[in-house]
Amino acid sequence: MIVPAHDAAAIERSALAAPDVVVLDLEYTVPPKGKEAARAGVAAWVKQIADSQREVFVRIDRDTRWADVRAAVARGIQGILLPGPEAADEVADLADLITTMERERGVEVGSTELVLMLESAQGFWNIASIAQASPRVSALGVGRIDLTMQLGPLPQDEFRLYRFLMTRTLVAARMLGKQPLGACWRPGSRGGVANVERTARAAKEARLMGFTGCVCATAEQVAPVSAGFSIA
User: Do 180 and 140 contact (CB within 8 A), yes or no?
Assistant: First the structure.
């Protein structure tokens, strides 16, 4: 579940939804004027969430990834979620910075995972090399917003090649031993703000394709996502 890293109340409330993973966000949900405060406080939130026995990731902003990683790597962190990678050297360079920060912060070297959310035509084209750029890469996911902007929406409110790109991500993840993340959002479902019924359906259809989980944008989506990805 994505939670704005600058919003203390939202972070505290996230525990009530009981997500498998809390993703502290330094990207879209944080307004520009809140970025510095979010970075300043993110390490403390990582420790607090980890101390409560919940996995915690930090979603960084690709444009400010260096500052975001320096702020985020702290004791208790499970991993970094990187949106929109496009080339292998971008991932490798970021992995090197994570290693440096682990050593400085007393975090076990190599323990911080990288989850890659593909959001561009170039990223999907280079998916195999990107996924193999670092042994830290543990999962591959499908983004939506930037893809829609690049590839264009269809009249039915869906963006082009969605099923193909999900399949490409799934094949690459299975081939390389990474976790595939994504949901099969139908036209008009609005993805991150979809209602409970549409969220459950998107999760179930993704599970049937072979995906193992997805990112939630609201607390209301946690339960239907869990149900949709349940084998039972």
Answer: yes
What's the rounded Cα separation, in Å, for the pair 185 and 204? 10
CA 143 remoteness from chain centre: 9
What are the structure tokens assigned to 22, written together? 């809390």
CB distance 137 to 116 below 8 Å: yes
| Sheet with 113-118: strands ordered across | 2-4, 21-25, 55-59, 79-83, 113-118, 137-142, 179-181
Strands of 102-207, DSSP E: 113-118, 137-142, 179-181
Say how far apart CA 92 and CA 96 lie, in whole Å.
6
| Pair 22, 42: CB distance under 8 Å | no
- What sign for the dihedral angle of Cα 117, 48, 229, 179? positive
> What's the pTM value of the predicted model, to 2 decimals?
0.91
pLDDT tens figures, 109-145: 999 999 999 998 899 999 999 999 999 999 999 886 5
Q: Distance between CA 206 and CA 200 in Å, rounded?
A: 10
Counts for the chain of helices (H) and strands (E), in that order: 10, 7
Please tell me whether residue 91 adopts helix, strand or coil conformation: helix
Q: 97 near 66, Cβ under 8 Å?
A: yes
Pairing mode, strands 179-181 and 137-142: parallel
Q: Which of 226, 228, 232 is nearest to 20 (CA)?
A: 226
